[in-house]
Amino acid sequence: MRIMAVFAHPDDEIGCAGTLAKHAARGDEVMLVWTTLGELASQFGDASHEEVTRIRRQHGAWVADKIGAQYHFFDMGDSRMTGGRDEALQLAKLYASFRPNAVITWSDDHPHPDHRMTAKIAFDAVTLARIPKIVNEQGGGQAMPPAPDLSGDDAVESGEDVRRLSAWRDPVRFYQYFAPASPYPEVFVGIDDTLETAAAIASYYRDFYKWQWTDELFREGRAGAGRLAGVKYAERFNLRASHLRARDYLD
Q1: 182, exposed or middle or buried, with CB in 10 Å at 0-12, 13-18, 19+?
Q2: H/E element holding 23?
Q3: Is 206 left (phi over 0), alpha (psi -120 to 50) or beta?
Q4: Contacts of 221 (CB under 8 A, 6+ apart)
Q5: What does the pLDDT look like over 212-238, one tens digit per residue?
């Protein structure tokens, strides 16, 4: 199984780190994708874009190594995302390269516009990646400008004109962070075995951003989801589908 987690900013993946680590430990291929560098974080001050890129590469490499994942950065502009076709096309080309069976991303109604736009292009890219003429076209009908090497992997770079990609037409399970107003069914993943990995990633970002959010609060959030799901610790998602798959028996 191949799982791609698509988020707007480094640290957004905290909500599914335990799930990703659990799949990686099982032997599944996991890729972390960020659509921006999160360059507007106040911790960067007046740092140059090159310096921000260097620091974010370190963040991405550390988190990916902790999870057991590949990672890939786009550079769509912190708080500048539009949710447009060109952005979705860049992601669709990465889908065609990595060929995910499942995608995890933000909910559709999050207050941050980058989060909503990332969820939108992550969903739109599922369809775009299915169409050979689209996934092989140059961005917006003309060549997109070359992008810096931000990825840490051999996949398609942001803005890169890549030809002869094979369309990815297999079904893609589309998971989103839980939102109370979502019309889609809830899915819980028990993370008892990978809680410490998830907690370490949360702590890593907490130290960088100087959050007041404590390790105890992090664990209690996972424990709260676990109580709803009948396990000690869990992460909570919505599955963007009309119906869940059939099970052998009722719980």
Answers
A1: middle
A2: helix 17-26
A3: alpha
A4: none
A5: 989 999 999 999 999 999 999 999 999
Distance CA 56, CA 223 (A): 30
* Phi, psi angles (nearest 5°) of residue 54: -60, -45
CA Rg value for the chain: 18
What are the φ and ψ backbone dihedral angles of 64, each rounded to 5 degrees?
-60, -40
Q: Which amino acid is at 37?
A: L
Tokens matching residue 188? 């819980």
Confidence of residue 204 (pLDDT cuts 50, 70, 90): very high
This prediction's pTM: 0.88
Strands (E), the chain: 2-7, 29-34, 70-73, 102-105, 173-177, 186-190, 234-239
Widest Cα–Cα separation across the chain: 58
Mapped onto helix, strand or coil, the DSSP state of residue 179 is coil
Q: What is the DSSP letter of 42?
A: G
Band (140; pLDDT cuts 50, 70, 90):
very low
CA distances 228 to 155, 189, 196, 198, Å, are 38, 11, 20, 19
